[in-house]
Design brief:
Shape: globular
Helix content: 55-70%
Mean pLDDT: 80
Order of helices and strands: HHHHHEHEE
Strand order of the largest sheet: 2-1-3
Oligomer: single chain
Structural class: mainly alpha
Distance between the termini: 78 Å
Number of helices: 6
Low-confidence stretches: 1-52
CATH class of the largest domain: Mainly Alpha
Number of strands: 3
Largest sheet: 3 strands, antiparallel
Radius of gyration: 28 Å
Strand content: 5-15%
CATH topology of the largest domain: Four Helix Bundle (Hemerythrin (Met), subunit A)
Length: 196
């Protein structure tokens, strides 16, 4: 009987020790997994901060708001976005730019700001806004190409705009949402290029 009790106690101690060891391993594994998750989150945050810290991103965000407003046939929102884009373009010029970026900025600055201002002043004339959007889209293409760290963008093309002369624009999505023709032909166009 004494041997049976000793055997039961030995088995119980072994089971407790085994459980404690496995629990320790699980805690270590959980701790490593948590540490890895935190590291990945920090890397993603740092990556997002790097993208957000790139001075062109504010300009791109305002341009995309403008594009979306025109695609939705909303001249008021387009005017607001045009004013924000004008301010963002001015701020971009005041930020630290590489010599190459500064050269491109200097080439398009006056033109881009003027067209953003016209868009902002013409909330009741969406066709006029679209004319200026055509030109500012060309300036934006040049700017975006000069900067690293810009979000993935698509260069879209509408062959029918401006009496079939065509026009391009930048988009954050591969899906076509035409800012030149709006609700009349929202999916008219095609992706011509990806910018990473």
């Amino acid at each position: 009987m004494k041997n049976s009790i000793n055997s039961i106690v030995s088995v119980a101690i072994a089971a407790i020790a085994l459980t404690a060891c496995n629990g320790g391993n699980n805690n270590a594994e959980e701790s490593n997994a948590a540490s890895t998750a935190v590291t990945q989150t920090e890397q993603q945050a740092n990556s997002a901060e790097t993208v957000a810290a790139t001075p062109i991103n504010g300009v791109v965000d305002d341009y995309l708001q403008l594009k979306n407003a025109l695609a939705a046939d909303n001249g008021q929102e387009a005017a607001s976005a045009g004013n924000e884009l004008m301010d963002a373009l001015k701020e971009l010029g005041a930020s630290s730019l590489t010599p190459e970026q500064k050269q491109v900025y200097d080439e398009v600055q006056e033109d881009a700001i003027e067209h953003a201002e016209h868009i902002g002043m013409n909330a009741d004339n969406i066709e006029h806004q679209r004319e200026h959007f055509d030109i500012i889209s060309q300036d934006m293409y040049d700017l975006v190409k000069a900067f690293d760290g810009v979000q993935k963008l698509y260069v879209d093309y509408c062959p029918m705009y401006n009496d079939n002369k065509g026009a391009t624009w930048l988009s954050a999505t591969e899906e076509i949402s035409n800012p030149y023709l709006g609700s009349a032909m929202p999916t008219c166009g095609e992706v011509k290029e990806e910018i990473n």
